[in-house]
Amino acid sequence: MKDLKELTRAEDQVMQILWLLEKGFVKDIIEKMPEPKPAYNTVSTIVRILETKGFVGHKAYGKTHEYFPLISKEKYTRFYLNNLIKGYFNGSFQNLVSFFAKENKLNAIDIEKLLEELKNKDHEGDH
Predict the structure, then answer these.
(1) In the chain, what are the domain boundaries?
(2) What's the chain's Rg over C-alpha atoms?
(3) How far lies 33's CA from each of 14, 25, 71, 84, 125, in Å?
(4) Are 49 and 13 in contact (CB under 8 A)?
(5) Closest alpha carbon to 82 in 69, 72, 96, 71
(6) Considering only CA atoms, which of 102, 88, 105, 76 is closest in space to residue 7?
(7) Quick check: helix, strand or coil at residue 91?
(8) Strand pairing partners for 57?
(9) Model's pTM, two decimal places?
(10) Class of the 9-69 domain?
(11) CB distance 14 to 65 below 8 Å
(12) Is 62 left (phi over 0), alpha (psi -120 to 50) or beta?
């Protein structure tokens, strides 16, 4: 996973759509984008950059290419969150939770649910 790179905002937007579609042509990606829609060439360039970065593959139909993700959304999410925690929270999940609790984004009920999930995960490992 070390060879993964963080996506730019535009690349992320295209990947989110490709993960949703599972495969599609540039026009299909553009169709799912919000207004104002970017130019065809812009999206085509982003898709080719994603292909160079190893996120996207394609199947050729004459001069037209159908694109599909090579990296799962889950794998990228794990990579992105690990980088976020390393970069902003000294590698500590506890610091991350603390931050959101202080920002009032997590309340006691949310924290209890998190703890419950962690306990259940620990018990699953026991079997």
Answers:
(1) 9-69, 73-126
(2) 19
(3) 8, 13, 21, 26, 41
(4) no
(5) 96
(6) 76
(7) coil
(8) 68
(9) 0.76
(10) mainly alpha
(11) no
(12) left
Residue type, 82: N
CB 80 within 8 A of CB 4: no
| DSSP-derived secondary structure for 57-124 | EEEEETTEEEEEESS-HHHHHHHHHHHHHHHHSTT-HHHHHHHHHHTTSS-HHHHHHHHHHHHHHHHH
Tokens of 52: 């160079």
Residue with tokens 């609790």: 101
Alpha carbon 23 to chain centroid, angstroms: 16
Between 94 and 33, the higher pLDDT residue = 33
1: pLDDT strictly greater than 70: no
The contacts found for 3-7 with CB under 8 angstroms, 24 or more apart, are 3/54, 4/54, 4/71, 4/75, 4/76, 4/79, 5/53, 6/80, 6/83, 7/50, 7/53, 7/55, 7/76
User: Is there a contact between 51 and 67 (Cβ–Cβ < 8 Å)?
Assistant: yes
| Residues, the chain | 127
Residue 2 has pLDDT above 80, yes or no: no
pLDDT confidence of residue 11: 96
Q: Tokens 């649910």 identify what position?
A: 113
